Amino acid sequence: MDHAAYDEQEAILDEGVSLGLIVTSALIIWKTLMLGTGSESPVVVVLSGSMQPAFYRGDILFLYLGDAPIRMGEIVVFNVEGRDIPIVHRVIKVHERHKTGHVDILTKGDNNYGDDKVLYASGQEWLNRKHIMGRAVGYLPSVGMVTIVMNDYPYVKYLLICVLGILVVTSKE
Question: Which of 89, 95, 98, 152 is catalytic?
Fold first, then answer.
């Protein structure tokens, strides 16, 4: 094998290792955030206008779960059985059973007419602590629009991946 071919293989290997380090670093950061916030998804994007004017479509929310009880007025992100996408809404009622520690939670989007019972699983009237992914503790306005555009128009996502791939392969140090 000549020296030029060896250098080319070494460059390709270096690029692969660099890409692997970037992906690994991102996963480590995500897992660290999960541990620090107690939330399975410490960052979410608001996907609808149901929380306007508090949050708009494309806002990024930072979540923290913690052990404190859920209180009326808090904005929570929750999962509903049978739905893949988490929902961001405000807690409008909390029923606590002090003897058992069980808590029932009712939510509503600020911009919605009625409560969320129609969004819950069939026959479900309340959320429980197990449904809550976290409470909104901060946000960045409009930054998540990139995610929404890539989901609404998949060709944009593929184009971006191709451009980034070309940049990685053709970059020189």
Answer: 89
